[in-house]
Amino acid sequence: MIDGKRVVIVLGSLELGGSERQALLLARYLVREHGAHVQVWGFYGPGRTAELCEEYGIPWRIVSHPLFGWRIRRLKGLIKFALTLRHARPDVILPYTMIPNVACGLIWRWTGAKMCVWNQRDEGLFRMGQKMELWASRKIPWFISNSQHGANFLSQTLEVDSNQIKVIHNGVDLAKSKFDRMAWRKHFNVDDNCFLVCMVANLTDFKDHATLLRAWRIVIDKLAISNNQPMLVLAGRLDTTYESLKTLAFDQKLGETIQFLGKIDDIPGLLSAIDLCVHSSYFEGCPNGVLECMAAGLPVVGTDIPGIREAIGMDNYPFLAPIEDYEGLANRIIEFALNSKLCTKVGSMNRQRIEIKFNPQRMCKETIELISRGLSS
């Protein structure tokens, strides 16, 4: 039913994050496997997502934010957005994250589209006001969540019938690396004996890099006794918390044991050089920063929150620490630093979990099955 259809994917931004990666995976699959005519739209950008669209031959565009400003301005914005979508004549509209979900939910029936699917990628971030969210969600019959707690948010907070919600976990597709382990370690000026730890996440208020930096001070002190000099690298866009984290790193006297990398295009190559993934966070849907590390065969230490639990599975629960517990996080990092066999064992287990539960082909096929059912109903 999806073959040859016109599909518009709507994103909040054409910078690259976890939601955008999933949208691109699906867009490329729709084009290659079903000959769909896909466009990717964003309210902000352009950024890395736009660059990847060009690499894949997928048209992209920036459209005006339809929910910016107060009531009259929002109404005008929604009308303009609806007319712009109607001109594109989509069969299917696929918004990702809260603002696109709400905007598309409010106007999709005016666009001529046959269906619109709400994609819930977190447990309720970037809220638009419950009245508007409820209004939008009641106009959409189809919902996808990439996690069970995201589905719980839809049913409990937005009062969506659980029968309308399909949980489809993220798909993980690590691209071919540009540089190998040796090249990356040379870049960091460390040898193969250095215990290299990485967190892959944009530096935003929703992540908790600060707890990781406090934990890192403990890790350095305790591993100094064993003559094991570790290094922590933070890969992700230098966003709202960057300046405060630089100050904290200075105050903690972390010196050359930490590097802020900024945006990294070669995530697979970087992960080939890493020994341990850490993910310290306040909120997560189903975090790509964790899943990609697992796909690379790395063990994961992180914050004990639902999204990370759902990603790593029960066998990994002992490696999670409570929110803001920097001592607990440090102890779990040290456990892996002193036990290379544990690193290998857990890393192998994580890779197998990704292959089974977070396969990109499965994610795409399950999404297309839902879309096909909607188009035929």
Summarize the structure.
The chain is an alpha/beta fold and 377 residues long. It has 15 helices and 13 strands.
Structural summary, described in words:
- The chain has 377 residues and is of the alpha/beta class.
- The protein has two domains: 184 residues, Glycogen Phosphorylase B (Rossmann fold, 3-Layer(aba) Sandwich); 177 residues, Glycogen Phosphorylase B (Rossmann fold, 3-Layer(aba) Sandwich).
- The strands form two sheets. Strands 3-2-1-4-5-6-7 form a seven-stranded parallel β-sheet, with helices on both faces.
- Helix 1 links the parallel strand 1 and strand 2.
- Helix 1 crosses helix 15, helix 3 crosses helix 4 and helix 4 packs across helix 5.
- The longest helix is centred in the first third of the chain and has 18 residues.
- The radius of gyration is 21 Å and the shape is elongated.
- The mean pLDDT is 94.
CATH class of the largest domain: Alpha Beta
Average pLDDT across residues? 94
The rounded Rg comes to 21 Å
Shape: elongated
Content of β-strand: 15-25%
Largest sheet: 7 strands, parallel
Q: Count the strands?
A: 13
Structural class: alpha/beta
* Straight-line N-to-C gap: 11 Å
The helix-strand sequence is: EHEHEHEHEHEHEHEHEHEHEHEHEHHH
Any idea what the CATH architecture of the largest domain is? 3-Layer(aba) Sandwich
The CATH superfamily name of the largest domain is: Glycogen Phosphorylase B
Walk me through the topology:
Elements: E1 6-13, H1 18-34, E2 37-44, H2 48-56, E3 60-62, H3 71-88, E4 92-95, H4 98-107, E5 115-120, H5 130-137, E6 142-145, H6 148-156, E7 165-167, H7 181-187, E8 196-200, H8 209-224, E9 231-235, H9 242-251, E10 258-262, H10 267-272, E11 276-279, H11 288-295, E12 300-303, H12 306-312, E13 320-321, H13 326-337, H14 340-357, H15 360-376
Parallel strand pairs: 1-2, 1-4, 2-3, 4-5, 5-6, 6-7, 8-9, 8-11, 9-10, 11-12, 12-13
